[in-house]
Amino acid sequence: MNELETALDDLDGLHEAFRALSDTQRVSTLTSKGKLRKKLRQDLAAGVEAYVSTLISSSRGELEPKRVKKCRAAAARRMPTAMAKQKRLASLVEERRIPNPEVRQDLHQLLSLSLHCRAALAALAPTVDRRAAEALGNKVLVELREATLLYVSTARMADDGGAEQARSAVVEQLKKTESHAGEFVGLAPGSDDDDASLGATLSKDVVDMLHQTSLNWSAPAAQSTAAA
To answer: Cα separation of 176 and 195, whole Å?
Structure first.
């Protein structure tokens, strides 16, 4: 999904700019003017939240170029000062690049979960009780949105900007969401059959993705505890 990679590029840029503003060793005066730096960081945080929220609201889980444009517009509305200082922020970032592929990979996973859930909900709708499906589906989507926003806020505030602290912050939320997604699967006719409907199959995929993600993200914490 090329549009998802484009969206991740955008989010990478916002995350990196936020982190760069914390580096007072950089030449740019953006890092030395306290009030301006604070305002820019607030803008960038709000921009990420708006971008993510708009992206995971993609109808039927289909991320198209038009949706990416909407994401960018939603983010821009939330960060007027950052947009006005766009060129200076770009120069600040270029002073010393600090890419974070782990955070990007994790965001890819979280965003994909939301998009898959929307696709499953759309596929299930014609075959199940619509009100029940929407109630459960929306609960899962809201929880995934909360987990994603908590992840990005934790990652940008982590001292090392790494993924481990952000993963730890959301893993219990993902486990809870997995149980709700399991209820969602149970609504589908033939969900226990080999010849399950597309909606049932997609819903099971969401549960499997949630389970594997929470399992993988719990592993480092468990290893640290064992080592202690």
So the answer is: 28
Task: Please state the domain extents for the chain.
Answer: 2-95, 101-227
Please tell me the distance from the alpha carbon of residue 115 to that of residue 209, in angstroms, as a whole number.
12
Task: Evaluate if pTM is beyond 0.85.
Answer: yes
**pLDDT (tens digit per residue) in 81-133:** 999 999 999 999 999 988 889 999 999 999 999 999 898 888 877 777 777 77
Q: How many whole angstroms separate alpha carbon 199 and alpha carbon 103?
A: 30
